[in-house]
User: Fold these one by one.
Assistant:
Number 1:
Amino acid sequence: MASMRDIKRRKSSIQGTQQITKAMKLVSTVKLQRARSNAERSKSYFNCMFETVNSILKRVGHIEHKYLVPGESQKKAVIVITSNRGLAGGYNSNVVKLVTRHPEWKKEDLVIYPIGSKGHDALARNGYDIRECENAIMDAPAYVDAMALAKRLLQSFAEGEIGEIYLAYTAFKNTVSHVPTLLRLLPISCEAGEPEETPKAEAIMNFEPEDVEALDLIVPKYVTSLIYGALVEAVASENGARMQAMDNATSNAEDMISDLSLKYNRARQGSITQELTEIIAGAEALG
Amino acid sequence: MAEKSFNLRIITPERVFYEGDAEMVEFNTTEGQVGVLPGHIPLTVIIKPGILHIHEAEGEKMAALHAGFAEILPEGITILAEVVEWPDEIDEGRAEAARERAEERLRSRTPETDIARAETALQRAIARIQVLK
């Protein structure tokens, strides 16, 4: 059995850790609230954007447009959104797994655009082709950052460097549920088989300027808004995941402390009993 | 036309900018200045920097609308704006400075000058300044 002093030292070290995890949990709770209200405020924009673009695509039917068909290149660009800091449970590795364990993707075909240093490090270690990454974005995602990234990606897409664009991030469902999600940004998937739900002769959407030109202008905005939405949700998810992880850590520490207290008391009692027996035995020997 | 007002929603990535009933909305598009009344045919337009006028039953509101697109339907308009500002959110000094910068860039144009960008910047600055007046 470990000595009393060892147990005591171990216990106090766990108590120190518990204080840290508790503080981290409080901090991420506050950050989560802020991030969540941000995500909720911007949600209506993305829902609206998504609906609008879908309804536009449905109404125009199947037109030949560069953003609606895959490019000729086999290369796929993947934007991987992770956090800059660890201690968030499986948050980062789940997103990375989406990319590394994808059944149809080959490492050679992928070009990774990481946002967040954890994803960057993990994928770089695995030998993926990493393009420029801007980890600072994750600290305070802004619409202009998403705009700059979307512009670069669309340019490579237009030049035929990449054939498809994907987005890997963690969707924020609610405080306790975060879903790693892989989304195809381009080409935009037309849900072809889906029947029009409103059969009443809906008036045909007109475009000013012409539809192809309008799509040229709308699609970049669509891509930008999806990237921005993913960034905002990822921040909320990150803090949610960290809050959960730290909550677990705190309660684990509590379990360990109560276990150690028990052991400590038992060791203390054992040593007292032993001392008593020694004294009594000594007294008897004298007598 | 039976309907006198329609629902107007202006949404930005950061917030819901405006939501309410309006009688007429005016803004600038790639095809020129438009004014939309209730019962318009379905139309999607791309927004160019300009002044947004919202005509409500009680009066008129103005804002600087810079980028985005609008989906017009007979029963309402949804404007998905990337940037839109109320007059009290605009910094006049900065707008003035931006206008001078853009004008300077257009005057001293070199082959590398991104003219489209400079022009958009100029339009944005002018829209901001006009809204303040």
Note: Residues 211-286 of chain A form the longest helix (76 residues).
Number 2:
Amino acid sequence: MRWLALWLLVLAGPALADSKQPPAPLANVQLKDPAQEAKAQALMLTLRCVVCQGQSIADSNAEMAGDMRSLVRTRIAAGESPETIRAWLVARYGDYVSYDPPLSAVTAPLWITPLVLLALGAWLARASFKKRRRV
Amino acid sequence: MKRLLIWVPFLAVVAVFAVIGWGLYKPADRTVHSALVGQPLPKFNLPPIVPGKPGLATTAFATGKPRLLNVFASWCIPCIAEAPKLLALKQAGVEIDAVAIRDTPAAIADFLARNGDPYAAIGDDKVSAVQLALGSSGVPETFVIGGDGRIVLQHVGDIRDEDVPGLIAAVRNAR
């Protein structure tokens, strides 16, 4: 009985949360114009996949990331600027969707902490060099 | 002074572990909320996906009567769990439209035959275009659209029994 259960488990097909539908037209197809494709690629590297959350849409295999890539390429091909597209997505998903966070009260620590840590390091280094000179 | 300072690294490590412990005990909310709540419904026009049921356009909303907009798919398992709750909402007099994400007519017809059909209209969204326009990050999601065409509320994930009264109230209160 236990073996049967084990074999059933081994043989069971995975239940994937995927539609198995073909990808959106421009999800995995580059734009014909290399300059436009470069622009699209640069933008896609700085947009977050909202399904996988830790990956950019350029890196993600999620179907929704494919749909987002297609959206970016379609709009770039239509002559929209990358920043307009980013703004369109930020209006829908918040700053969260962008890997290029703007400076605001919430994100200020991201920008200020490195400077504070550098200053602290310099101060510590100065103190320890001073000590050594005394010995 | 030095006697006290010697404890500083230890306290720093304790603080780090406290932060980690707190994060494990109370994980941050990873739900992606739409930034469009309170804003007008974006403009879209989707073709029908099953015969005998109209497609879905923005013009179906802003008719003075609040409606539900359900984002679903036949390949989505929580959508099956949610189906009876949507039927209960329809029973309560709530009008429900849907956007089918990355789906086929045959699969949708089969889904409706198995799980019931609470929908007045279903739009065919082959490349998640309307889903992205709504700021939705998955299936299922449900939006309450006010009679003035504004998004009043977003429900992320499947509707459970305990969510039904809240959604009915949101539809009643939406103008």
Note: The two ends of chain B are 66 Å apart (CA to CA).
Number 3:
Amino acid sequence: MSTLTTAEPAVRSTLLDFRDVDLVFPDGTAALGGVDLTVDRGEFVSIVGPSGCGKSTLLRIASGLESASGGAADVSASRIGYVFQDATLLPWRSVQGNVELLAELHRAGKADRAAKAAAAIGLVGLTGFEKHLPKQLSGGMKMRVSLARSLTLDPELFLFDEPFGALDEITRERLNDELLRLFAEQRFAGLFVTHSVSEAVYLSTKVVVMSGRPGSIVARFDVPFPLPRDPDIRFTPEFAALVGDVSHALREGHR
Amino acid sequence: MPTLQETAARRSTVARSALRPRRIRKRASWWQPVAAFAVFVGLWYAVAAYYDQTVELPYLVPYPHLVLQAIVHDTRPDGVPTGFNAELWAALGRTTVVSLVGLAAAIVLGVLWATVMAQAKGLEKALYPYAVVLQCVPILALVPLIGALFGYASLSRVIVTVMIALFPMVSNTLFGLQSVDRAQRELFELQGAGRLTRLRKLQIPAALPSIFVGLRTSAGLSVIGAIVGDQFFQRGDPGLGVLIQVTASRLMGPELYATIIIASLYGIAVFLAFGLIGRLAVGRWFDFS
């Protein structure tokens, strides 16, 4: 789309570029006020903020489910993956059927669909579960299926709306590791909304802190730890210090 | 650390054991229902004896064995041929046809009606009141009019059946189509799926459990509709409704009871059959009780 990327493919290209984005709902509620945010290819950006600060709204604008009422919200990714808060699986479809859904909606051929699904199911470690129905899976496994479903799109920009919020701590950490591994392998651009500061720091290359309302970005942090990351970095003083800084900014913004 | 293959193998074993149907259900004991039925028949004999000996109106509550005889034999106990038995089965056949044709029409109309309403809030607001009206207007009050408009034979019987059986189809289908949650709808929207794709791949499958619940209720109502219609439109071939009226007016106690029992059994059979169809269709992924 942009001439810059075709001319210089090695240069970091910006897939999501929000400048001074406002959103006022028809009932007059100001959800977002002047959000500036960019996500480049190869970046994983987490948004932390209190409930109702407009984090999810930001994702909805990025995906096109909602449109901004002011400012410029440019998304130049052609394939966007969106992982919802719930797994949103279709209960009448098997794991395989659920993972094939998006390709099916894009009218992909049967063989193509099956190949994409098999690859994605392999990536999230669910090989052997293809014929299972969602009701036979645990919450964590459902989330993996949901991830696999989005992976079939081979997304350039991956949007995550608190995907692991409803899971227990152990499952959540395991899925964090898998997501990090996927990101290290695939290098999509990620925009991840979460309540958990340590999750945000662990997963991301950049963490932004939002405050409400109207939602705006009050602090930005670069995460210096290289990829791929060892799960044990969570117990290092550097990690703890950064978590502390982000938490502090979150409290400041919330005041 | 286990290799990927090992992990996968272990996972699929876990998976298989999760797939195995659970059979922890307690052993069904057969004697309680049998005992209850025996008590019921015993009471029936006692009441029948009372009406036979004391009240001396035996046709009001006939003995169970006489009723059974009317169902299975074409003769009275004294050997006189009645011809009733053949008539009973013929009537059952006609009522079955009317109720199933009416039910089929109710299914088609109900699902179409609900699907149209599910397309836009405005359409729902415009059309749903008529479904409620259909449910609230006493159908019996309309029966003479239906007879005058459509004649007193099969067509009118089917129309009455449809009117009685339609509402559960409409309301359950609509409820089912609207039960799809927002995130699932947005999942389709994000892929640019059209209205028709969404209906076919999301809303209708999601609605199937409630459609089958409606279908089971409507199936039961269609039997009532067919019998009520039959009782009012006396012309044409008699069904169970006509047979009930005729046997009642001629004080044919055992035959009347036989007809009522067959009508009830038919109603139960239809209810169970459509429950089973529902379980077969969606029981795999939905707890259809």
Note: The radius of gyration of chain A is 18 Å.
Number 4:
Amino acid sequence: MPRLMKHIFPLNRHLIQRLGFAGLTVMAFLTVLPIVAVVIYIIVQGAPAISLEFLSDFPRGGMREGGILPAIIGTIYLTIGTAVFSVPLGIAAAIYLSEYAADTPLTRTIRIAIINLAGIPSVVYGLFGLGLFVLFLRFGTSILAASLTLSIMTLPVIISTAEEALRSVPQAFRTVSISLGATRWQTIRRIVLKEALPGIITGVILGLERAAGETAPILFTGAAFFLPRLPHSPFDATMALPYHLFVISTQVPEMPIKIQYGTALVLLVFVLAMNVTATFIRSRARAKRQW
Amino acid sequence: MNKILIESLSLQYSDGTESLRNVSMEIPANAITVLFGPAGGGKSTLLRCLNRLNDLADVQVVEGKVLIDGENILAPQTDVIALRRKVGMVFARPVVLPMSIRANLTYGLELAGEKRRSKLDEAVERSLRLAALWDEVKDRLDDPAIALSGGQQQRLCLARSLALQPEIILLDEPTSGLDPISTGKVEAALQELKKDYTIVLVPHSVQQAARTADYAAFFLQGELIEYGEGSVIFTAPKEKRTEDYITGRFG
């Protein structure tokens, strides 16, 4: 067959290569296209809604007017709450796996568990959070319960990226440090963590970014349909951007479309800002890296 | 005066393969003792036994003792941190820590609890002078160490060990990546250092072994074949295998 083709299309190898690369380039651009389209569409539809009032006021008129302040504040609270639990735990687990754990059946099981944790649908986390934190531990529908649920969902991302970052620190640094009379912990604290920090921060931000944008895990655990005031304590429920978007898109009839897209735009900017920060930290650390 | 006494030491890797077989030797103070031989002979493993760096690798002591100043450092109750301060090490590849020249030198001392600025500065200058690097870097101590050339980095690594004021210095092919001029500087520094230190060197070539050795030990496949004064080993070896290796018939 190839021989036959050659007879029909007498192409030389260079031309074939050029065609091949051209095809690959088109494919690469095609993958970017949907993302760009989504962002542009949301900006065009949502930008008219954005105003100081929209960002700083409570929803009014059955949420068809006013702003989305409590949802913005709520998402910030949930993100911080998630960070409080998942960051120390995730980094500690990554240090254990990368620096201390031997390759035993137990640690292999832990690793497999972490990988599988990342594959669990977010609504399942939501249900789990409802059962454990809201009902069993009696935290109620609260920022605390929602943050804990989001933390469990975020942990695999933080652990695996942090472990990756720790492993990329050259082994020779550890050997040298030990040979200079450092303990393993001193070596980790003074050399390994310092070098891995940009990578760890990047992973943390990417994990939190996902938490900030999720609806399902907070659906049963901490998100409120509407609250006339901001939450006072971790035991209060809260409004949040993703859930608010879900509510105003599906639960409220005759919703002005620009408020929906305005909310989507705010959420998008929130998440993209975190993403850009992560990318910035990573690229700056790479440029500064000396090995 | 023997600083290090190795008594019928046998080591093996965790998969059971033998690394060193029944090695006994005495390493004198204030001299350069060279461990040489073809790759895989167990020289590096023996070297890393002397500061217990093998603890990090999958090497086990089967039997034997290593006495430093009369104390068996292989005993489980040994304070390995104190041991590693007393027994400094320089590796084949110069590995500077990702920090300034000064911080590389003060790293070990700070870990040991030294906080006084004057003491640290003193150690920086003293160790850099000993490693013949002071004049080249004295005006840029706060530059990143990685900016130094390969030869300078290796002398920095030597200085970094010396900053801890060890008694013994282990060098594992310290000049394997260096040009002849840098190699000469390192070797000259070692000749100065041996007045005050016990030096154990795994050279990267037979020529370097012959140039530097006060005492030389020939290792072949985990066995100590011959050990004696360098001037004797490299001119009139007793063992046929030593002679064959030195004259380049194998290796």
Note: The CA atoms of residues 1 and 7 of chain A lie 10 Å apart.
